[in-house]
Every structure is written in C-alpha cells, then in structure tokens.
Write a structure and sequence with these properties.
- The protein has 177 residues and is mainly α.
- It has nine helices and two strands; from the N terminus they run H-H-H-H-H-E-E-H-H-H-H.
- The chain has a two-stranded antiparallel sheet.
- A hairpin with a 2-residue loop joins strand 1 and strand 2.
- Helix 2 crosses helix 3.
- The longest helix has 21 residues.
- 27% of the residues are buried.
C-alpha cells in the first residue's frame, strides 16, 4: 500500500509536458530547442500579463483581447522576444526579414519547414488544417484568417505545446510585419 501511495504521489507531482512534434524530421535538435524556448518565453509573457498560472487562460484572454479590440496589444516582453528570435537558427525556417521605412520587420515564409510542420499538425485538427490551407493558398495571413484565428482559437487544445507554438508564431508574425 505504501509503495502504491508513494508511486501515485510521485506520478501526480510530475507535470506531463507535451513536446514540439517533429514530423518527418523537419527540425534539427537545435531548432526544436529554439522552438521550445519560443513557446516558453511566450507562455511567460502572457501568464505574467494576465496574472495567471494557466497558459490556456492567458492565451484565450490574449486572443479574446485581439478579437474584441481588433488590435494587437503591446505587452511587456514581446518586443524583446521579437528581437531575440531574429538571432535564432530556426528563424530562417519560419520567417523572412524585410525593411520598411527604416524599420526591420518579418513575415511568414511560404513553402518552408514551418508550413510543412503546420500541414502535418493540421492532420490532427480541423482548425489547424483550415488555418494551414488558408495560409498555403494565400501565401500570407489574410485578414479573414487572422480574425478567424482569434475568434475560433477555443477549438484547439492550448495545453498542447504544439498548438501554443502555432499561436506564438501567428501573433509574433502579426506584431512584426
């Protein structure tokens, strides 16, 4: 009995953390580490801003804020994260840089490792599948896709790190283009 109680206590104390999926070996180990760090930093920024321990609650609140106000909130830490990700190895597998009016911006690359990743993850989710299809068809994030993402985000599991990665990349792209 005592061993069972100890085992169950240890098991319940271990937080089950989902990992970034690597379908077809799209990402290198370095890139996977960087993707995990992007999600962790995004988690930290949102949970701090919305004063909660729940990533799901923070992500939903952020998305609701975007949908209700039709603007991207200026949250403490986003600018630093945006600057930091430009230095990552994985950056060029997701985004491309451009300069407009003397400011450096970035947008999603089409036909990239990220769009391949998105398509593969979309096989498990109608929402992500539709998002990937729209992104691939337009080669950009169209206003209807942006609005639909914010409005329908509740249809995906935000406890899943893969979905939070897609969310983070989506909003980091919008903030920086």
């Amino acid at each position: 009995k005592h061993l069972l109680i100890i085992f169950l206590t240890i098991l319940s104390a271990c937080k089950q953390e989902s990992k970034i999926q690597n379908p077809n070996g799209i990402w290198t180990e370095t890139e996977l580490t960087e993707l995990n760090s992007i999600v962790s930093e995004f988690d930290q920024i949102l949970t701090t801003e919305y004063k909660t321990d729940s990533e799901k609650k923070a992500y939903l609140e952020y998305s609701n804020n975007v949908f209700q106000n039709q603007i991207l909130p200026n949250i403490n830490g986003m600018e630093k994260l945006s600057s930091d990700i430009k230095k990552l190895v994985v950056f060029n597998k997701i985004w491309w840089k451009y300069t407009d009016s003397g400011s450096e911006h970035f947008n999603l690359k089409t036909d990239s490792n990220y769009t391949k990743h998105l398509t593969k993850i979309g096989e498990q989710s109608d929402f992500i599948n539709g998002y990937a299809d729209s992104l691939n068809a337009a080669s950009d994030l169209q206003p209807s896709v942006i609005a639909g993402f914010a409005k329908n985000i509740e249809s995906i599991d935000l406890t899943d790190k893969n979905n939070r990665l897609i969310f983070a990349i989506h909003y980091l792209t919008l903030i920086n283009r």
